[in-house]
Amino acid sequence: MIVIDTSIAFKWFNTVEPGFEKAISLLEQHLQQKETILVPDLLIYELTNAWTTKTSLTYKEVSKNLLLLERVKLKIQPVSFNLCRKASQLAKKYHLSVYDAIYAVIAKENKCYLYTADAKFKSKTNLAFIRVIQ
């Protein structure tokens, strides 16, 4: 099992993104059932927001991307009060957003790697289970 954050899922839909090939490789492993990708439900909100506000995608394109994402059948963990408490503690310790910390807590609790394209996030925490794809 691995955890990916929104920056990795975003790459799946944009072939010109740096690290596209590595991100797609993670997805292919999931689709071939060689690796399970676990994400918080937060990823769906963040990805939809990024497509809607940070790209020139139309509503139809965003909707299509959401349908494609749904078909991937990621393992989705609901965000809970307990998870938010733990994320808040980690965020305070490392000066992170709670959003970023949620991914780290999920990876830590599941004893697996967290893949991100956010090198700054990795450098702030220096947590051994975080892997950066760029």
UniProtKB/TrEMBL annotation:
Keyword annotations from UniProtKB, A to Z: Magnesium
Location of the PIN domain: 2-123
InterPro entries referenced in this protein's UniProt entry, alphabetically: PIN-like_dom_sf, PIN_dom, PIN_Pae0151-like, TypeII_TA_RNase_PINc/VapC
Pfam assignment, any one: PIN
Top-level taxon of the source organism: Bacteria
Name used for this protein in its record: PIN domain-containing protein
